[in-house]
Amino acid sequence: MGIALTWVAAPHLTREACLARLELAPTGAAGEYLQLPLAVHVLPAGGQLVTALACGHRIMSDASMAALSAQGEALCCSVEEHVNYACCALWQDGRRIWQVEYSAEESEDDIVCEGDVPARVAALRAETEPGFAMEIPLELAREHAGFRHDVLDPAFEAVPFDALRDLHVRPRWWHRLLRPAGR
């Protein structure tokens, strides 16, 4: 068994602005992020970190990342450990700048890079032992945002994460059946 997690970092946003852009709201509860479906915390260098206990959660969708990165920068990272999958992407001013992705289902030792990836990717490739290419997007995300889900930081983790609820309305297919004709 492994962790399935999505997280986004918005270093330029206040908590209120970050949550509004992601359509999330505090619940008043707090705890460890690996026990909360959705959570928020202040990044070590400032800004906001939002976590979701699912790989590919909507907080990293193109729409969410465009909103988070409007007039600034935002980074997303997603990991599904039990299938050896990880990706991270940097967005700025509403558009994706680069993305680095690894999937063991695609290739055992290769990563897929899109956009203007940092030069650091080449160094990480050279430093990474064969069979551990999944580390590259995770380490790149840590270096950029200051957070990695599997690296302990006692000072950071001493402050509980605040639990969130999702305000994003998802239309259900059966609502269309109940809607009167002409609407």
Query: What's the average pLDDT?
Result: 92
Number of domains: 1
In terms of DSSP E residues, the strand content is 25-35%
The side-by-side strand order for the widest beta sheet comes to 2-9-3-4-1-5-6-7-8
Number of extended strands: 9
Uncertain residue ranges? none
**Main sheet properties:** 9 strands, antiparallel
Tally of contiguous helical segments: 6
How far apart, in Å, are the first and last alpha carbons? Answer: 47 Å
SSE string, helices as H and strands as E: EHEEEHEEEEHHHEH
Radius of gyration: 17 Å
Shape descriptor: globular
Helical residue percent band? 10-25%
SS-based structural class?
alpha+beta
SSE layout and pairing:
Blueprint: E1 4-10, H1 15-22, E2 24-31, E3 38-42, E4 48-52, H2 62-68, E5 73-80, E6 85-92, E7 95-103, E8 112-115, H3 120-127, H4 135-145, H5 154-157, E9 161-166, H6 173-178
Antiparallel strand pairs: 1-4, 1-5, 2-9, 3-4, 3-9, 5-6, 6-7, 7-8
Can you give a write-up of this model?
The chain is α+β, with helices and mostly antiparallel strands. It has one domain (4-178). 24% of the residues lie in helices and 33% in strands. The protein has 6 helices and 9 strands; from the N terminus they run E-H-E-E-E-H-E-E-E-E-H-H-H-E-H. It has helices at 15-22, 62-68, 120-127, 135-145, 154-157, 173-178; strands spanning 4-10, 24-31, 38-42, 48-52, 73-80, 85-92, 95-103, 112-115, 161-166. It has a 9-stranded antiparallel beta sheet, sandwiched between helices. Helix 3 (120-127) crosses helix 4. The longest helix is centred in the last third of the chain and has 11 residues, at 135-145. The relative contact order is 0.21. The model has no long low-confidence stretch (mean pLDDT 92).
